[in-house]
Amino acid sequence: MIAIKTENLTKIYRRRHLGKLYKTVGVKNLSLEVQEGEIFGLLGLNGSGKTTTIKLILGLLFPTEGKISIFEKSFPDRNRLNLVGYLPEIPYFHKFLTGREVLRFYCNLSGVDKSTQEKRIDEILNLVNLFNDSNKRISEYSKGMMQRLAIAQSLLHNPPLLIFDELVSGLDPLGIREMRNFILSLKEKGKTVFFSSHLISEVERVCDRVGILHKGSLLKIVEQKDWQNKNLEEIFIETINTTQ
Amino acid sequence: MKKIFSIATYTLRQNIRNRVYYILVFFAVILIFVYFILSVLGGEESLRIILDFGLATVEFFALLLIIFSGVSLILEEIESKTIYLVLVRPIPKWYYITGRYIGLVLSSYIGMIIMYLIHCAILFYKGWSFDINYLYAVISSFMKIAIIGSLAVFFSLFSTSSASSLVFTFFLWLLGHFTSEIKFLIKKAGTPLLKILLEIFYFIIPNLQYFNWRDFLGSGISSNWFFIAFFYGVSYSLIFLILSIILFNKKEF
Prior knowledge:
The structure holds two protein chains of two kinds.
Chain A: E1 2-17, E2 20-35, E3 39-44, H1 50-58, E4 65-70, E5 73-75, E6 84-87, H2 99-110, H3 114-127, H4 143-155, E7 161-164, H5 173-188, E8 192-197, H6 200-206, E9 209-214, E10 217-223, H7 224-229, H8 232-242
Parallel strand pairs in A: 3-8, 3-9, 6-7, 7-8
Antiparallel strand pairs in A: 1-2, 1-4, 4-5, 9-10
Chain B: H1 2-16, H2 19-38, H3 46-73, H4 75-80, H5 84-87, H6 93-125, H7 132-158, H8 162-175, H9 179-188, H10 192-204, H11 213-216, H12 225-250
Helix pairs in contact in B: 1-6, 2-3, 2-6, 3-6, 3-7, 3-8, 6-7, 6-12, 7-8, 7-12, 9-10
């Protein structure tokens, strides 16, 4: 089954200033397919359209043109969001709430059954090693704890598809390693992972396939076997250079 | 429905845990006690001073509460990106606005109930016997707060900064107390265009004079004013809530 499919996806940002219309291309004619159970990485420089693509898939932005399907049902259908877990680049939570309260809130919104909710929250808190700090207010959390809470909220409703934006951004080497193992463990559980990054070394280690995005266009899709012969960094730079 | 309730509870918790909330309620309570002391100057009308000034203070502080929390309610979540993790859940977008609005209004009502209880306690201490008009005044203030809350949410979606939505909301609250003056201006308007513009303006701004219960009681203007005012308050708040939902549905994040 195809977990994510985009067809000619285009997003043009329009901004009016002093009566003049300014247009910026977010993504242009982006067509890709992510298979169920696959780890797909979206690789690109800053401003290449990675976050725009993710926001379009999640329905946070409306496409100017093109179609998006999630598990072969066309989007936007907000009910399909039940199948998706999202981890933002920098996780923001309301600082007045405790970690447990935040998770309980997201459980309610995701429709996790009330009778199993507390058990599920405990399970997830243990998984991300936050159980002992779960009754602390978020304002007391460190960056690493926030990241772990963000992972917890993305897994709460046990979604088959996980979308992560700039997964390892700002993490220390130990955190990056933990995250890498976490992604690989998700694959073992049969989950589909779609994530964006500009860190080639990380993408190379975990992905089955990688899409190279540059200035809003998907230039190439590279498979794992391709970068076993040739370094992914070289492939990436070569691909980017061909457009310049 | 459960999901709207969940968003409302989260908003309520967020507002009540905000320091500004405590400070405002605390100051209002202090002021009510000040009237208690000042009432000595009122001689025989001392009870009247505590009653009138107390009611006005509760309403004014509730207004501050709802404006300050309301204008930043959604804007702050958009700016801090906390809204992303709510909008990627399988809920219709209008649940979010409705839940936020209910939570906002409820948190102001809780603050108001605390202030009214303290006010009543002081009044009873001074020998006041309960008057049904007090209840009318309380419900009227509740309606005003519901209206101002819907305007605050609407402007927070409309404008790009908390300051501008704060000014717009406060401006409309102020104008809402001068609707009869606007009506007078309509009569005196020289050109038809100005008349039409003023008429439109008259219908847009909230007619808060419906809720100035003292103007109506005993004057014989209308015996069922309370129900008309109640209906007006609910309809006005609903219209602005629907407008906020329409705006929010079109918004990108």
